[in-house]
Amino acid sequence: MHTVEPKVFLIGETRIVEEGLKEYLAHIGVPDWMSDAPTDAERLVEVMGRLCYRSFKPGLNSNVTKVREHNADYLANILSVKHGSVIEHPVMNFVFADVSRVFTHELVRHRPGVAISQESLRFVRLDDLGQWLPTVIREDPEAVEIFARTFEDLERLQQELAQHFQLDAPGTPFERKKIVTSAIRRLAPDGLATTIGWSANPRTIRWVLEMRTHKSAEEEIRLVFGKVGALVVARYPHLFGDFTVEMADGLPSYKPKNSKI
Ligand SMILES: Cc1cc2nc3c(=O)[nH]c(=O)nc-3n(C[C@H](O)[C@H](O)[C@H](O)COP(=O)(O)OP(=O)(O)OC[C@H]3O[C@@H](n4cnc5c(N)ncnc54)[C@H](O)[C@@H]3O)c2cc1C
Asked: Which pLDDT score is estimated for 14?
C-alpha cells in the first residue's frame, strides 16, 4: 500500500497542417491571411468560424463589410454568442494518474466530445494499492488508521487469492490470469489509485471544468479539474480566458462569463 496524489498531464493537442491551410486560404482568395492566435487550437477555431461567413477579410463575401481583426476578439465573440460547435474542432489529450475509481466513474458521466482509455483492472493485478485521502479523512488520525488498515487488508486479500489460484506458477496461461484478476478485483476498494486517459474538445472541457470545480462537486474531481483549469487557462487564453477563479474550501472554483456554450 502506498499513498498518492492525483496528477494531471496534458500529453497532446491538435496541430494545424500548415501546407493544407495555406492551400485552402489560396483556394478561397486570401493567401496572405494570418492569425495572431497563441496556439494552433485557437487558430483552428478561428479558421473554422471564419469559413462560415467567409469573414477572412471584408468583401470576400459581399455581405461582410468589416471583420474582427484579432483572434482574441474573434473567439470572445464566438463564446459570447454561444456558437459552441465551432470550438469542438480541436482536441486536448490528458492523462489523469493516481486517481480513484470514484473519480473515474464521475468523469465518464460526461459523454459528448470525449475519448476515454482506462487502466484495465481485468489485466493489471492489484498487488500494490495506492491511496489518496480526502480532507475529512486526512484530518482525523483514527480514520487515517482505519483507511490504511483496510487498504492493507484488501491488498493482502488480492495477494492471497492470486496465490490461491497460483497465478505466478510457471506456465499459467495469460487468459487464466485475466479471468482470475478480473474476478478478484471485486474485493478492491473504490478508492484505489488508477489511471485514465481523457481526450476532450474545448466545449466539453469548459462544461466539465465549470461543473466539476463547483463547490458542490466531490473533492477529488474538484482537485483534478482545478489542475486542468490552471493548465488550459494558461495555455489557451482565448478559449478559456473568460473563466474567473474563486477559492472555496481551499480548492479553486472556475466560473465562466459564458456558461454552457
Ligand atoms: C455536484 C454533482 C452531483 C451529482 N450527483 C449525481 C447523483 O447523485 N447521481 C447521478 O446519477 N449523477 C450525479 N451527477 C452526475 C450528473 O447527473 C450528470 O450525469 C453529469 O454531471 C454529466 O453532466 P451532463 O448531464 O451535463 O451531461 P454531459 O454528458 O456532460 O453532456 C453535456 C451537455 O450535453 C447535452 N447532452 C448530453 N447528452 C445529451 C442527451 N442524451 N440528450 C440531450 N442533451 C444531451 C446536455 O446539454 C449536457 O448538459 C452529479 C454531478 C454533479 C456535478
From this structure: 98
**Which residue among 43, 50, 212, 222 is the active-site one?**
212
Verify whether residue 68 is a known catalytic residue: no
Q: Residue 195 belongs to what H/E stretch?
A: strand 193-200
- Helix 71-80 to helix 40-53 angle (10° resolution) is 70
**pTM of the entire predicted model:** 0.97
Q: Whose CA is nearest to atom 4 of ligand 1?
A: 217
**C-alpha cell belonging to residue 184:** 478478484
**Mean pLDDT along residues 122-150:** 97
Q: Whose CA is nearest to atom 34 of ligand 1?
A: 112
- Confidence (pLDDT) at 208: 98
Give distance in angstroms: CA of 208 to centre of ligand 1. Answer: 9
Q: What is the pLDDT of residues 217-249, one digit of tens each?
A: 999 999 999 999 999 999 999 999 999 999 999
Question: What are the residue ranges spanned by the domains of the chain?
Answer: 13-88, 92-117+194-256, 122-187
Average model confidence (pLDDT) across the chain? 97
Distance 233 CA to ligand 1 centre (A): 23
What per-residue confidence (pLDDT) applies to 230? 98
The CATH-assigned architecture of domain 92-117+194-256 is 2-Layer Sandwich (3.30)
Nearest CA to ligand 1 atom 16: 109
Count of all residues that appear for the chain in the document: 261
Q: Which atom of ligand 1 is nearest to the CA of 111?
A: 29
Task: Compute how many other C-beta atoms are within 10 angstroms of the C-beta atom of residue 219.
Answer: 17
